[in-house]
Design a protein that fits this description.
By secondary structure, the protein is an alpha/beta fold. It has 15 helices and 22 strands.
Length: 466
Amino acid sequence: MIPATTFAGKKVALFGLGGSGLATARSLKAGGADMVCFDDNETRVAQAAEEGLQTGDLRDLDWSETDALVLAPGVPLTHPMPHWSVDLARNAGVEIIGDVEVFCRERRKLCLDAPLIAITGTNGKSTTTALIGHLLSTMGLDVQVGGNIGTPVLELEPPQPGRHYVVECSSYQIDLAPTLDPTVGIHMNLSPDHLDRHGTMENYAAIKERLVAGAKVAVVGVDDRLSSAIADRLELARKPVCRIAGEKELTNGIYAKYGRLYEAHDGTQTEVALLGGIDSLRGDHNGQNAAAAFAALRALELPAEKIATAMSSFPGLHHRMEVVAKQGRVLFVNDSKATNADAAARALSSFDRIYWIAGGRAKDGGILSLDQYFPKIAKTFLIGEAAEEFAKTLEGRVPFKISGTLPQAVADAAVEAAEDEAQEIAILLSPACASFDQYPNFELRGAAFVDAVRALSGDGNTQEVA
């Protein structure tokens, strides 16, 4: 844990006692803050009180004597309307911040030289965060990985010389971190997301831009128009910028092409890493992820050859394009984290012959936007609430079977794939749906896929690789 000593003796209100909110409350208490915390969920308030945290309805607080409101990232700051605690703080002129801001203040106080790599973007930020953490750890460096990816940032070890922080930041966290100042800031890409919380695409993009604008070195993906414009603005402001791409060749920057990573300076391209053969880094999107990680470590002046060597052993992110087993020519790929069509598109683009397991609780738009990938799909096995809806979309375009449950879909797909003579086949769980009809979260859905794959291995021919 990182005690929030920068708030010692200050009166702090905290709202939101989920995972990161509770971790922040513990940090503030350990750092000596005079804190009161609250949540609209009575059970969470009771749990916090049992831990010895001071709780109380913030509507009863004397806001004129309060120094800060620390807001959990899941609590609305602006849209669709500010939470009532936000209104109270604003009316009293009290600053509103989040856990990443608390972390930044502690880092500046304790050890500003501890490198901070902060990553954001609509897609790819979790894989990039995990990849950078893997590279630094493999190279023997002291590394702490957290933020939006899993471990709350204030549950990491305290800053000290030589300790590297790799922190995934959601747009919600950036919105609550006005002094975010990473050593290397990475912005991956932009596509419509979280507009219910940010109002417009312009607002969403502006929030993402803050992370790289405050960095010593900005690494910016330029595969989409809005992100490319961010890179242009930063350069006009004379900020150090490294452009990255997974879908285009660059004259300056780092880009992936045909399974290789290139570093370009004034039009001169040098191959710096081979991505082909790394199952966890298949596809153009992972080319951009690899380019971002490579650029970040080069910004820290780490040697290119050591980065390339460490990249080859990256196991991938759990539940995201995770090859969990091989059976002859058949790969079993767990992409349970693909909870919408845009995310599923990244997996579908990465294989040439696919037995696709899809379905769950459908998102708006369904899977019609994936039609460009239908020629790659040998057959689809549909599960969950969305099965009938998806069947209508696939009718006459892609062979399908309504398997109903995930274990049945795995068994059905394995039977058909065994008769396929293609050189490489992927049995791919990439649901394009939320899990909530059959599983509490995508992690448990992914675990169920792994269990179903293991159940096939009675003949001993399945090799587990993750």
